[in-house]
Structures are given as structure tokens and as C-alpha cells.
Amino acid sequence: MLDTIKDFASWFFVTGDPLIYGADVAITLSVIAIVGVLTYFKKWGWLWKNWLTTVDHKKIGIMYILASLLMLFRGGVDAIMMRTQIALPDIKFLEPEHYNQVFTTHGTIMILFMAMPLMFGLFNIIVPLQIGARDVAFPFLNALSFWLFFAGAMLFNMSFVIGGSPDAGWTSYPPLSGLMHNPGVGQNFYIWGIQISGIGSLATGINFMVTLIKMRAPGMTLMKMPMFSWSVFATCIIIILAFPILTMTLALLFLDRFGGAHFFTLDLGGNPMMYINLFWMWGHPEVYIVVLPAFGIFSEVVATFSRKRIFGYKSMVFAMLVISVLSFFTWLHHFFTMGSGADINVFFAITTMLIAIPTGVKIFNWLFTMYRGRIKFELPMMWTIAFIPCFVVGGMTGVLLAVAPADFQFHNSYFLIAHFHQVLIGGVVFGYFAGMYYWWPKMFGFKLNDYWGKWAFWFWNIGFYVCFMPQYALGLAGMTRRISEYSWDTGWGPLNLISTIGAFLMGLGFIFQVVQIATSIFKHQKDVTGDIWDARTLEWSTPSPAPEYNFAVIPHVHDVDDWWETKQRRAKGIPEAPQPQLEPIHMPKNSAIPIIMSLFWFVAGFGFVFGWWWFYVPGMIGVLLCMLARSFSYNTDYYIPVDEIKRTEAAIRGSV
Ligand code: HEM
Ligand SMILES: [Cu+2]
């Protein structure tokens, strides 16, 4: 009996590696610490009422950002471990199997559990405020999306200590990810972690699309919508069309592994290349999903800190929509080497290169906006200015990769690794950092500390070039991706060492950011204006942080940059239209169903991972019951009375 339990435990828990035991201890201690603090300060009720069951888009946004920063930490630790292993030839820090797991979890976490939620966090915090709405179109669904993301992310991360991590790359191509070559549960964690959070992502795409179409303030025609909102619009088009492909593809892969199907196997009529095509039909649009909102952020930041209207508003909108369509026609550039022949490769080479045109248009628009502007070098603007050259170089190496015959040389080499990190870090991460610094005062009512912010900025930036520039050369010298060891006679040692130093510099940059956030929380000056940057769009017309109903009176919009125009009119003393009477505000009620339903999804996912019906059957029944409970709950909204609005407004503004 004891032996059976022992056998089970050593199979169930990941064992045998000091790093993992360290993590086990750290996780247990953190959980005890969090539970202890909450209990000691009697904060459970507060946590449940104000956060875990909230449907307020601003709070959901903050939870997304918090979770994504945690995931950035995990993904970053993975990165540092890999760079340590390959800093020099013949290092024995990570075993090859372990290295495979680490690049798989790093890639998956960074894209799906770091970039996506950071993006959704910014959508949540800003979009309703920017278009003059009181919340998103479906606040309940919004909370559910967050909790589904969170359940998926937790399930995925659990593989680190229970069952074993996936190790077939973030792309998880069969046959390597198929049952025959990968019988453990790691791949199942990959499938179900992504699947559960993917449902949430799809729902968010639909939610924000409807919000942008239906909830804009009166007068805000589509062509008066702020640039960030436009970028969200373009992104949602891609999410809605692309995520179902991923869901289906992973479902088929799961059927192969779980139900003995042969969609992607090498025999019985299956074809692994089908998976690879399907994966990138989602995967390429996915990179535009994460980068378009960054473009939106840069557009806002450039206009605000150059104190000018964005140059070429219409061309900006057009460029974004063209990118969202084109992004669906380039997927094959990820496997020019598949052998589909010259004609097909040429088609995809040309579509890929075409994307450079709208992207170039945007770059010039940003530059022309800055031209002759009175530029203020605040942190968001610094990240934006750092982004431009970085993204231009990253984009141009992308065009090189799009040259199909040349790609036979570059394919799967460190040249590719350097390219995609340059656009993902220089574009996506820099963009979201710019957005986080820019809108932080809107979220919390104070600015982040400049001193530590500048340290972080320079360490990230210098670290970036030190880390990734050598990798272009390494790629050309023949170093392929996903290798954990190489010998001295390759000559790759020195450049790899430099690259690793760069990775550590970026790691320090991240630590400075943590210090920056911590010191700013303890010591800051409260912003009482609500418009700390003297900015242009509607979110800055509300107090910081905005009250739960956002706008006591819904604004009427007349211009692009409506808030800026309003301020100009006020400065000139032009009388404003009289404020209409306050009316009771219709609001959604908090709900516990999203978090409970996601918990059931988590249980079901866990059951599917191990093939244990006594988990997945109750889990799925729980999910169904939650759906029923929601369908039959009628008490889902309430009105805030005028008196209370007056009191709240008086408290935050000093007067009504
Ligand atoms: C913070 C600095 C970062 C460093 C030092 C870093 C480093 C690395 C390293 C060493 C690899 C493995 C290369 C190989 O052996 O093939 C890798 C792979 C990867 N990284 Fe990063 N990375 C960083 C940030 C990011 C970010 C921000 C993203 C995405 C938003 C990202 C996405 C990926 C992906 C998708 C892979 C491919 C994984 C695979 O081969 O399956 N990385 N990175
Ligand atoms: Cu692509």
C-alpha cells in the first residue's frame, strides 16, 4: 500500500531536481504568507467583495495587469535560466530535457499568459473611459473572461510541479507533441491551459468589438474614435476570426492524444503538416493581435507628449485595418521549407512583404507627429522613442526572413530568434510598458517614480541590444534554435556570453521596475487634476482613478481629441453647453459566478490532463450548473441614486 502511494507520488509530483524543490518551497511559503496576511488583517471579505466578484472593467483591468506582471516574472526566470545554460559551451546547468521544457513554457507563457493579459488589462482600463462609456457591453462576460484566463494560466503553470511540463515548443508541433512521442501529461497541460484561457480571449474579443460599436458616447462617430480604441477595434477583428482556429486545432490534437484519433499522426491518413498550417493560421494573426494595441498606445503617447494632433489620422486607421486583413494571408512564411513549391512560397513572401507598407506608414505618421512638436520626455514618451528604431530594425529583418529562398538558410536559426524577440520586446513589451506608465495615473491616481523608471528604461534598452544583436550573427554562423549545448569548436562561445550578459541587464531592468512600483506606492504625490499629462482624449476628463460609474454625465463628443478641444474652448472662455440634470445610473451587480465557473473549468481541465473522469465529469457538470444559475438569475443590475452620485462627485472633485 505504502509503495503504491510512493510510486504514485513520485509520478504525480515532479521530482529529482533541486530547482523544482526550491520552487515547491517558494510556492508553499508564498501561499501561506498570502493566506496569513489576509486572515490577520481580516481582508477576506474585502477581497471577495471588491475584487474576486467584481464586474467593474477598471478593477478587472488591474487584476489582468497584476497577473501578467507575475507571468512576466516567470517567463523571465525561464529566459535567464536558458541564457545561463547556453552562455558558454559545455555548461551543465539544465539537462537537455529540462531545457526543452523551459523554452516551451517560456514561449507559451510570454505570448499567451503575459502579452495577451497585459493587453487585455489595458483594453479594460482604457477603452470604456476613452469612448465615454460606463462599462463594457457585457460586464459579466468580461469578468468571466478574466477568470477563465486566470484558470488556464494556473493550470498551465501547475505543470511545473505536478505531472511535468510540456516540452514540444510553444508551437507544439506533432508528431513530437503526439501521444507516441510524448506520452506524459505535459502536452495535455499545454492544450488545456491554452484552451481554457482561449475561450476567455475569444469572449473578450467579442465583448470589446460590441463595446466599440454600440457604446460610444453620442457624437463620437467611428472616425472620431481615439487611436487606441481603433487599434483595439482592429485587434478584435483578428481575435474573433483567429482564436476559433486555435481552439479547433488544439481540440483535434487533444482527440489524437486522448481519443485515439489520427488527424495529425504520421499514419492512418493523418498529416502533421496540417497542424502546422492551422497553428500558424492562428499564430501569425496572433502576433498582430499583440502588436496592434501597442501601435495604438504609441499613437496616443506621441500625440500627447508632442502636444499635437496625431499626423495622418485616417491613414493610421486605414493602415491598421489593412494589417488586420493581411495578417491572415501570410501564415506560410513560418514554414517556407515545408516543400510546397515556388509558386506558393512566392505568394506568401509577397503578402508578408506587403505588410511592411502599412507599418511604414504608421512609423512615418509617428515621426511627423513629433516633427516640430514641443516634445516632453516623460517615461511613456521615452519608451515610444526607443521603440521606433528597434521596431524598424526588427521589421526589416522580418522582410529578410520573408525572402523565401534566403529563409532556407535563416529558418529556425538564432537569426529568427533575434528577429522575433526584437519585434516582441521592442514592439509589444515596450508598447505595453509605455501604456502602463501612461495610464498608471489614471488607474491609481499617482505617477510612477521617474528615478527608478529611468534606471529600468536604460537597463532594458541597453540590455536588449546587448542580448539580441549578437544573435543575428550567431544565426548566420549556423547556430540553430532550441539547442541546449554546443562545443567550443563552433566558435559561438563569445557572442553567446555577450548575449547572456544582455539578458541579465534586462533582468535588472525588471527588478528596477518592481522597485519603482513599490517605492511609488509608498511615496507619491496624489494627482488631483485627473489629467496629469495635459492629454487629449476622454479618459483624462474623468478624475483619477475614475469613480465606478466613470462619467456622472455622459459627454457629447464633437472632435477627434475631444478633451483637448474642450480645454481649448475653456481657455478661450467660450461658454459651454449647460450640464444636463444628473440621472440615476444603471450599473451591473457583482457576481460570484465567473470565478466559480472558472474553478470548475480548472477542475475539468485537470481531469482532462490526467484522463481522470472523476475530475472532468463533475467539473463539466459544475460549469453547466453555473451557466444555468446565470440564466435564471434576474437580479443582476441596480441604479445608483442621484444623491449618491452627487456625494461621490463632491468627494472627488471638491464640488459637483
Ligand atoms: C526578456 C528577455 C527575453 C529573453 C532573454 C529571452 C530569451 C529566450 C531564449 C533564450 C529562448 C530560447 C531560444 C532557443 O533555445 O531556441 C527564447 C525563446 C522564445 N521566446 Fe524569449 N526571451 C525574452 C523575452 C521574450 C518575450 C517578451 C517574448 C514574447 C512576448 C518571448 C517569446 C519567445 C518565444 C515565442 C520563444 C520560442 C520558444 C520555442 O522555441 O518554442 N521571449 N527566448
Ligand atoms: Cu508570421
Helix content: 55-70%
Number of helices: 21
Structural class by secondary-structure content? mainly alpha
The run of helices and strands is HHHHHHHHHHHHHHHHHHEHHEH
Show unreliable segments.
none
Strand order, main sheet: write it out.
1-2
Main beta sheet strand tally, sense and closure: 2 strands, antiparallel
Oligomer: single chain
Characteristic key phrases:
single chain; 656 residues; mainly alpha; two-stranded antiparallel ribbon; 2 strands; 68% helix; globular; binds protoporphyrin IX containing FE
Write the layout of secondary structure elements.
Blueprint lengths: L1 H11 L5 H23 L3 H9 L4 H29 L10 H35 L8 H20 L27 H29 L12 H32 L13 H35 L6 H14 L15 H13 L1 H15 L8 H24 L1 H7 L3 H31 L5 H27 L16 H30 L39 H10 L13 E4 L4 H18 L2 H19 L5 E4 L1 H12 L3
Antiparallel strand pairs: 1-2
The structure holds protoporphyrin IX containing FE and copper (II) ion.
The site of copper (II) ion has 5 residues, from helix 9.
Explain the overall architecture.
- With 656 residues, the chain is mainly alpha-helical.
- Helix content is 68%, strand content 1%.
- It contains 21 helices and two strands.
- It has a two-stranded antiparallel sheet with strand order 1-2.
- Helix 6 (139-158) packs antiparallel against helix 7.
- The radius of gyration is 25 Å and the shape is globular.
- The termini are far apart.
- The protein binds protoporphyrin IX containing FE and copper (II) ion.
- Residues 284, 287, 330, 333-334 line the site of copper (II) ion (CU).
